[in-house]
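User: For a benchmark we're assembling, each entry needs the component sequences followed by a predicted structure for the full assembly. Here are entry 17's components. Please fill in the structure.
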Amino acid sequence: MANVTLEKIVALCKRRGFVYQSAEIYSGLNGVYDFGPLGAELKRNIRKLWIESVTSTPEEVLLIEGSILGSHQVWEASGHLKNFSDPMIDCLNCKKRFRADELNLEKACPSCGVKNWTDVRQFQLMFETNLGALSDQATKAYLRPETAQSIFINFKNVLSTYRVKIPFGIAQIGKAFRNEITPKQFLFRMREFEQMELEFFCKPESSDKYFDTWIEHRMKFYEKIGLNQSKLRLRKHEQDELAHYSKQCTDVEYEFPFGWKELEGIAHRSDYDLRQHSAHSGKDLSVFDEQTKESYMPHVVESSVGVDRLFLTLLFDSYHEDNIEGDTRTVLRFNPAIAPITAAILPLSKKLSENAKPIYENLKKQSFRVQFDESGSIGKRYRRQDEIGTPVCFTFDFDSLEDNNVTARNRDTLKQERVSIDRLEMYLRKL
Ligand code: ATP
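Assistant: Structure for entry 17:
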């Protein structure tokens, strides 16, 4: 098996319509991407499985959808206005900009080879905008750099309207924006991305237990969606690495071709956020304990992962190049629950299209994600489906007219078997 590289993944995504550079016809927008039909399906599956997983715990986990625009006060209270910046440095010779913490400043510019740096400055990562038409009356607002804060500021709303009790979680999937100094590695570091975040509220004394429970639960999720376990590891943050809000943090790391990197962050945020928002808004966000008859501030365990970063991880993890009788076949070995297309229906000859089409239409009606492809040699059509990770192809041939069977061809084993057309639905459900 040949090594997977970032270049191969980028090329495949473009070739097959998973991901396009945003505004490509105008030479692109750096760090921003659009998702094509297959990419959109893959993302949909990622979100669905994540929701199923986080809401499957014995404790209640509720979904919300917060706004993307956030007021100045929210980001002041959260600490982002003060702390959410990266150190930036420019090369005075070639004008390239870098993150100062990713360079050895004693050395020359990696781009032009000259050593002529500006001073290091702090660069605010939040995108700022103005609400309202008149500039003098406009209110400053920010595009959220994480989805978590809308959960904290809605904590009391959810608690009082849904009549839920601590411990419980609030989960959210949505866009986040960061003006990254150097967006890079394709979907790994983008300026507009999507996060799946869970904030789990519990009593202070049980927070360490829940921190461990959630780490375990999240690792089970990655096992379930089929990530190669030898490429996953947990890394506990050292005390001096911890973000301003966190008491403990453990990253789920994946071994990308460019090294072990964070896929997800799991943090013990203590009562930092609720305390901050209580203090800044003047609204008491503590809860009353019926047993002890005392109020307390809940503690929070957070799990945060990027949809796009997991998307990229799944591509790297499932990418294989097989050698079949001297020919190379590229295949994405997606777990069937993740694969954008579950099955392809392929009439062997165009003359059979009309007979094969009802199979496609019927499976589509049953909500299966299926494709109908009638053009090109059957070998080429199989390769195409392998490359987009379709677990099974059903080929309709001249015998099918007589025996009402199709040939099911397995993506991974390449085994072929005859299956009755009446049983295709069951066959796919078993996958
Ligand atoms: P990094 O150290 O990689 O910048 P971070 O620690 O700032 O990440 P968090 O704030 O913990 O990231 O964000 C939680 C998750 O959101 C990350 O684990 C990652 O999956 C995703 N994420 C963060 N920033 C980006 C980005 N610029 N592009 C894509 N995904 C991102």
